[in-house]
TrEMBL record:
Protein name, per record: Putative selenate reductase molybdopterin-binding subunit
Keyword Oxidoreductase tagged: yes
Pfam families: Ald_Xan_dh_C, MoCoBD_1, MoCoBD_2
GO molecular function annotations of the record: iron ion binding; oxidoreductase activity
Domain of life: Bacteria
Keyword entries, A-Z: Molybdenum, Oxidoreductase
Boundaries of every Aldehyde oxidase/xanthine dehydrogenase a/b hammerhead domain copy: 22-125
Keyword Ligase: no
Length: 755
C-alpha cells in the first residue's frame, strides 16, 4: 500500500446512490417534455428486399398520428463508418430494418399506426455467413462495397488509422521458426450484452439547424460527432440521462438518434423513442462476429516470430465503428505478440443481412484475442509450453513497441506485469491445475476438470484528448466541469473523490456538471478503460491548478509564501501554525470564483493488462460446461474506490465476458433471417446461483500517470475470459476446440457423442 488518503482507496457512498435506490434518478424512460410525441418504428419482416410500394394513408387517418416518414419523404441523412446506412431506404437489409417512422400522441397510437402501414416487397436473396458473403455471386448489400467488404478507414482515428499489420518478411520468418501451426477459429456468437434498460432518447429542435437530444448515451460527445456527421449543417447538443447498463452498447445510439431527430424535425415537437425489449434483443447492436484463419510460427525458445492471418469481421448490415474496432484488435494483437518480427495480418469488415454491430465491451480486441488464442494454443501444445510462461515471454513488457489505433508507434516505458501474473498464477494454484496440454487435472465419473488462462492488454486507457475545469467559490464548495455520463461504473463518484482529496473538502461540497456536450469542455467519453486515468489526470490537474491559485491569493493576504499554506474543509491555514487561518471567503469574497484547467493529451504508451485463470467442469455425458472458479490478476496503480473496482471486475465476469464463451448466443434462422433467441427465455443468461467463485489478485504500483496513479480495468476485466475458457474446456476433454460458444451440442460433437 502507498500513501494514506482521506478518501482515495477507501469505500465511500456513490454520489448518485440515494437517487438510484429511491427511484429519483432519471433514465431515458423517465424523460418527459411538454407537448412530447412518441416515436415508433415499422420494421421489415424480410432480411433482404426492395420496397415496391408503401401505403401510409390508413395510418395517417388514425387520430393522434402526427407524421409518418418513409424513404420517399425522409431527410437525406446517412451514417456508419464509412457512411453507408441511410436513415430510411427503399433497399432493406435485415429483419427489423426500418421502413417507416411514426410520431403520435401515445405509444399505443403509434403502434397501431405501424400495423396499418401496408408495404409490398420484392424479396431478394440474403446472405448471413461471412465466407459466403465474400464469395463470387453472393447477394450484394451495397453497390459501393463490392464483395460485401466494407472499405477501410476510420476518420476519427486520423488518416493513418491502423487497418492492417504488415512488417518484416513472413516467408523468411516462418523459415526461421522451430514450429509452425495453422488453424481457423470462430468467435461468432454475436452475443447481445443486453443491459436491462433499453436504449432510448428524446429529441427536439431549437431552430432549423439546432437539434438537441437527451437519453442513454454513454459518451455524449461521440454521439454528437456521429450525429453531426450524419446531418450536415446541423449543430447537435447531446445530454446524457443515467445510462444504466451499457457494456459499450450505448456508448452511442446513432440510428435511434437519427430516427428521433427526424420525427422531431418533421413535427416541430419533442419526440421520445425507447425501443422495446424484443427490438432490443433482435434489431439493436450486437458484438462483431470474428473468423480468423491464422498461421503462427515460434522460435525454439517459445517466442512468436512470424504471423499471417486473414481476419473476417462480421459487421451485420453496417457498423457504427467497425474499422475503429479492427484497428483496436490489431493493436491489441501486437501487445499480446509483442516480440513477433514478421507480420501480415489482413482484416476485412464484412456486411451481412443481420442487424448492425457496434462497440460492445472489448471493442474489437476481445474478438481478436478470443479467435487468436485457440491457434496459439495449438503452437504452445506442440512445443509443450506453459501458457503463463508463454504469455510472459511474448506480451509487451518494458521498452516494448507497438502500433496503436491511430497508426503511430508507441513504446511502453510504464510498468511490467510479469510479477503480478506470477502472483495471480500462485493465487490460482496454476501449477497444480495444469498437468499439461489437453489433459484434465481431475476426473470424477463423467465429469472432467480443466484449467486455462489468457492475458488481455489494451493501450486505450490513454485514448484521445480531453479537458476539465474545476471551479472554487468563497463558500467552500467546488464544481467539476467535465463531460462524464453515468453508465453504471460510478466514474462520476470517482472523479468527485479525487477532486475532494486534492482540495481537502467534504465529499458533499464537491459537485459535478450534468453530462451535456454544450456546457462542458470536449472529452471522448467512457470508452476503452480510459476513465480512471484520463479523468484522474485532467480533473486532478484542474483541481491542483485551482488550489494553487487559492493558496496564492491567501498568501498575499497572510504575507507568506504559498508553500507554507494548506487547506481543509474550506479553511486555509499555516502548516506550522494552524491557528493562523482564514476561510475561503476571505480570499474570494461572496461573488468571485477561481477556475482551474486540466488537459489530457493522447498517450498510448501506458498499456494495462489483465490475466485470467479459469477452472471448468465438463460433463462428458451431457456436454454441459460449468465454470467452477475464476481468478483475475492485474496492477491498478492505485485503487480509487475498492467497491467500484470490485463491481467493475465482477461486472465484466458475466455479460460480454465469460458468458460469450459458453452460453450467450444470438441464434439466427438463416431461412427467415430472424433471431430465434429474441426473448429472455431463449437468450441464455446465468442467474446468480449459477455464477462461479470469483477471486481477484490486485496489486498497486505508485506512478504519476494521473492524480493518484489509478489505471482503468473496466474493459480488460472481461476480455481475457473467452480465451481462458476455451483453453480450460479443451484441456478438460483432451481435444483442442476452435469455435465458440462451448454449448453442450458443441462439446458432444467434439467428443463424437452428438446424435
Amino acid at each position: 500500500m502507498g500513501k494514506e488518503f482521506r478518501y482515495v482507496g477507501k469505500p465511500t457512498p456513490r454520489i448518485d446512490g440515494k437517487a438510484i435506490v429511491t427511484g429519483s434518478a432519471e433514465y431515458a424512460n423517465d424523460i418527459h417534455m411538454h407537448g412530447m410525441l412518441y416515436g415508433r418504428i415499422k420494421m421489415s419482416p424480410h432480411p433482404h428486399a426492395m420496397i415496391k410500394k408503401i401505403d401510409v394513408s390508413k395510418a395517417l387517418e388514425l387520430p393522434g398520428v402526427r407524421t409518418i416518414l418513409t424513404y420517399e419523404n425522409v431527410f437525406d441523412w446517412i451514417t456508419g463508418m464509412p457512411a453507408q446506412k441511410r436513415i430510411l431506404d427503399r433497399h432493406v437489409r435485415f429483419v427489423g430494418d426500418p421502413v417507416a417512422l411514426i410520431a403520435a400522441t401515445s405509444n399505443r397510437t403509434a403502434e397501431e399506426a405501424a400495423d396499418l402501414i401496408e408495404v409490398e416487397y420484392e424479396v431478394l436473396p440474403a446472405v448471413h455467413d461471412l465466407d459466403e458473403a465474400i464469395a463470387d455471386g453472393a447477394p450484394q448489400l451495397y453497390e459501393q462495397f463490392p464483395g460485401n467488404i466494407i472499405e477501410r478507414g476510420c476518420p476519427p482515428f486520423g488518416p493513418k488509422a491502423l487497418q492492417e499489420l504488415v512488417m518484416g518478411d513472413t516467408k523468411k520468418g516462418f523459415e526461421e521458426c522451430a514450429v509452425v501451426v495453422e488453424g481457423t477459429s470462430r468467435y461468432e456468437t454475436i452475443s447481445n450484452p443486453l443491459p436491462a434498460e433499453s436504449p432510448g432518447l428524446v429529441a427536439w429542435w431549437d431552430g432549423p439547424s439546432q437539434c438537441s437530444m437527451k437519453g442513454s448515451f454513454q459518451s455524449p460527445n461521440i454521439q454528437k460527432m456521429i450525429m453531426q456527421l450524419a446531418m450536415p449543417g446541423v449543430t447537435v447538443r447531446v445530454i446524457s440521462a443515467n445510462v444504466g447498463g451499457s457494456f459499450g452498447s450505448k456508448n452511442t445510439v446513432p440510428m435511434e438518434g437519427l430516427y428521433c431527430a427526424a420525427l422531431a424535425k418533421a413535427t416541430g415537437r419533442p419526440v421520445k423513442l425507447v425501443i422495446s425489449k424484443e427490438a432490443h434483443l433482435s434489431t439493436y447492436m450486437l458484438r462483431l462476429g470474428s473468423r480468423l484463419t491464422a498461421k503462427v510460427g515460434l522460435l525454439a525458445d517459445g517466442t512468436v516470430h512470424a504471423y499471417e492471418g486473414t481476419w473476417l469481421v462480421g459487421s451485420g448490415v453496417h457498423s457504427d465503428f467497425g474499422q475503429g474496432q479492427i484497428a483496436n484488435g490489431l493493436g491489441r494483437a501486437m501487445l499480446l505478440l509483442n516480440k513477433c518480427k514478421h507480420w501480415n495480418y489482413q482484416p476485412h469488415l464484412v456486411a451481412t443481412n443481420r442487424c448492425r454491430s457496434g462497440g460492445i465491451r472489448g471493442f474489437g480486441g476481445q474478438e481478436s484475442y478470443a479467435s487468436l488464442v485457440p491457434v496459439l494454443s495449438m503452437a504452445m501444445a506442440k512445443m509443450n509450453l506453459d501458457p503463463v510462461d508463454f504469455f510472459k515471454k511474448n506480451m509487451c513488457d518494458i521498452n516494448g513497441g507497438y502500433y496503436w489505433v491511430e497508426g503511430h508507434w508507441w513504446e511502453n516505458h510504464f510498468l511490467s506485469y510479469n510479477d503480478v501474473m506470477d502472483h495471480a498464477a500462485e493465487h490460482f494454484g496454476w501449477k497444480d491445475k495444469f498437468p499439461g496440454w489437453l489433459k484434465p487435472y481431475k476426473t470424477v465419473g463423467s465429469k472432467q476438470y480443466g484449467a486455462g488462462c489468457c492475458v488481455h492488454g489494451s493501450a486505450d486507457c490513454g485514448m484521445l484528448h480531453g479537458e476539465a475545469f474545476v471551479k472554487l467559490d468563497g463558500w467552500g464548495t467546488a464544481n467539476i466541469n467535465v463531460c462524464i455520463a453515468e453508465s453504471g461504473m460510478g466514474q462520476r463518484s470517482a472523479v468527485v473523490k479525487m477532486a475532494a482529496e486534492i482540495l481537502n473538502l467534504p465529499l458533499d461540497k464537491v459537485t459535478i456538471s450534468t453530462p451535456d456536450s454544450q456546457d462542458n469542455p470536449w472529452d471522448w467519453g467512457l470508452a476503452g478503460s480510459r476513465g480512471t486515468l484520463v479523468y484522474g489526470r485532467m480533473v486532478g490537474d484542474a483541481a491542483r491548478n485551482a488550489r494553487t491559485q487559492l493558496l496564492e491569493g491567501a498568501a498575499a493576504i497572510l504575507h507568506c509564501p504559498a508553500e507554507m499554506l494548506d487547506t481543509r474543509d474550506g479553511i486555509i491555514f499555516m502548516k506550522d501554525n494552524p491557528e493562523v487561518a482564514l476561510p475561503w471567503i476571505a480570499v474570494l469574497g461572496p461573488m468571485n470564483t477561481i477556475t482551474g484547467h486540466g488537459v489530457f493529451e493522447m498517450d498510448h504508451s501506458k498499456p494495462c493488462f489483465m490475466i485470467a485463470f479459469v477452472e471448468v467442469e465438463v460433463d462428458t455425458d451431457t456436454g454441459d460446461v460449468r465454470i467452477v472458479r475464476i481468478v483475475e490478476g492485474t496492477d491498478v496503480g492505485q485503487v480509487i474506490d475498492p467497491y467500484s473496482l470490485k463491481m467493475q471486475l465482477e461486472g465484466g465476469l458475466g455479460s460480454c465476458g465469460s458468458d460469450s464463451a459458453i452460453n450467450e448466443e444470438m441464434i439466427l434462422d438463416e431461412k427467415t433471417g430472424k433471431f430465434l433467441t429474441n426473448n429472455l427465455v431463449d437468450f441464455k443468461w446465468r442467474v446468480f446461483p449459477d455464477l462461479p467463485t470469483f477471486e481477484t489478485h490486485i496489486e498497486e504500483t505508485p506512478n504519476d500517470l494521473s492524480a493518484f496513479g489509478g489505471i482503468g480495468v473496466g474493459e480488460i476485466s472481461g476480455a481475457p475470459l473467452p480465451g481462458a475458457i476455451i483453453m480450460a474446456v479443451s484441456n478438460a476433454i483432451g481435444i483442442q476446440l476452435m469455435d465458440y460458444p462451448l454449448t453442450p451440442d458443441h462439446i458432444l460433437k467434439a467428443l463424437g457423442k452428438a446424435r
